[in-house]
TrEMBL record:
SUPFAM superfamilies attached to this UniProt entry: FAD/NAD(P)-binding domain (SSF51905)
Keywords: FAD, Flavoprotein, Glycoprotein, Membrane, Oxidoreductase, Signal, Transmembrane, Transmembrane helix
Entry-linked InterPro entries: FAD/NAD-bd_sf, Prenylcys_lyase, Prenylcysteine_Oxase1
Residues annotated as domain Prenylcysteine lyase: 56-315
Cofactor: FAD
Transmembrane segment boundaries: 46-66
GO molecular function: L-amino-acid oxidase activity; prenylcysteine oxidase activity
EC class (word): oxidoreductase
Name of the protein in its database record: L-amino-acid oxidase
Name of the encoding gene: PCYOX1L
Stated family: Belongs to the prenylcysteine oxidase family. Belongs to the flavin monoamine oxidase family. FIG1 subfamily.
EC number(s) from the headed UniProt entry: 1.4.3.2
GO biological process: prenylated protein catabolic process; prenylcysteine catabolic process
Amino acid sequence: MTEKDFSELMQVRRRQQKRSRSAIFTGEQFVLEETDWYLLNLFRLWWHYGMSFLLVPAFAGAMLLAGAQGNRWAVEGGNKLVCSGLLKLTKANIIHARVTAISLHSSEGKPLYQVHYENEDGPGSNFYDIVVIAAQLHDSKNNITFQNFDPPIAEFPGTFHTTVTSIVHGYLNSSYFGFPDPKLFPFASVLTTEAPGLFFNSMDNICPVNLSNTFKRKQPQEAAVWRVHSQHPLEKQELKMLFRSYYSVQVTEWQVCPDYGSVKNLPPIILHDSLFYLNTMEWAASSMEMSAVAARNVALLAYNRWNHDVEKIDQKDLMHKVKTEL
Ligand SMILES: *[C@@H]1O[C@H](CO)[C@@H](O)[C@H](O)[C@H]1NC(C)=O
Ligand SMILES: *[C@@H]1O[C@H](CO)[C@@H](O)[C@H](O)[C@H]1NC(C)=O
Ligand SMILES: *[C@@H]1O[C@H](CO)[C@@H](O)[C@H](O)[C@H]1NC(C)=O
C-alpha cells in the first residue's frame, strides 16, 4: 500500500517534517553528531570506544527510546488517529469496558466463550465463538481470570522494562552539554551512552501534533517542550541540571517492552480451541510492526481453524512455494 492509499483509506494526513539534528552525549561530551561529516564521526566514535561501542546495550536502548525522532512518518493530529481510523474501518461494535473473566461453555460440541466485563453501568457479559486477547496477561497486568478451562490457563510469569517519560516545558541548560551560549546549541535530540552519573537515556525537542506551514521549531534559547526518557523519575536537582528553568513537568511511567531475560519460553498463541493470545509476539520482539504482523497472522489462524482449513496452517513447504512463485 502506498502512503497516499494509506492516507486516503485512513482519512489522515502526513504531518509536516521539520529538520532536526541528533547527537550522542556521554555525560561529558558529544561523540557523534548528525552532520554530513559521517566518516569523521565514525572515526571519533571508534577513537573513543572501539567497535565494541555498537554492542553497548545502552546504545541499542537509547536508539530504541529515541522513538519519535523528527524524521519519522507522523500523522497530523497525532498517530493515535491511525488506531481510531482502523477501528472505524472494521465497523466493529465496540463495548467500552474492562474484561474481568473469560469462561468456557459449549454449544453443540463447539466451545463458546463468555466474556465478562465491567463498566460504569456495572458488570455484563457476552458469548463469542472466537476470542482474541490483545492485552498483556503477564505480571497481573489485566487480572483476567479464566474459568472452566481444563487444563487451567494459568497466569504467565515475566516482568517488564519500565521507563519514565518527562515532558518538560522550559529553557534548556545548554551549559550542561558544554554550550555556554544556548544560541549555539545545535541539536534537537540527544541520545546517551551508558556512563556513570548520566541520569537520562535520551531527550528531544518535540513539535505539536498539528503543524502549520509557518511553524518553526523553538530555538534552544527559547522555552521549548522537551521529552526526556530516563530509568527513574527525575529528581528536582536533575531537572535543574538539564533545564535553566521550567514552567511545567508531566511525568509518565510506562512499560516499554518485556524483560526478555525474565521468561524461559514464549507463551502460547493458542490458549484454547478458538481463544488466542496476540501479545505472545511481544515476548519475541516488541514493536508496533511486529504486533501488526502478529495480529494479521492471528486473524488468519482463527479463520483457518474455524473453517478447518488445517492445510493452510503451519505449511511445511511454504517457504519453498513462496520461492517458486517468486
Ligand atoms: C489537528 O489535526 C487533526 C487532523 O487533521 C484535526 O482533526 C484536528 O482538529 C486538528 N487540531 C487542531 C487543534 O488544530
Ligand atoms: C490486579 O490484581 C492485583 C492483586 O489483586 C492488584 O495489585 C493490581 O492492581 C490489579 N491490576 C489491575 C490492572 O487491576
Ligand atoms: C547548568 O549546567 C551547569 C554545568 O553542568 C551547572 O553548573 C548548573 O548548575 C546547571 N544549572 C543551571 C540552572 O544553570
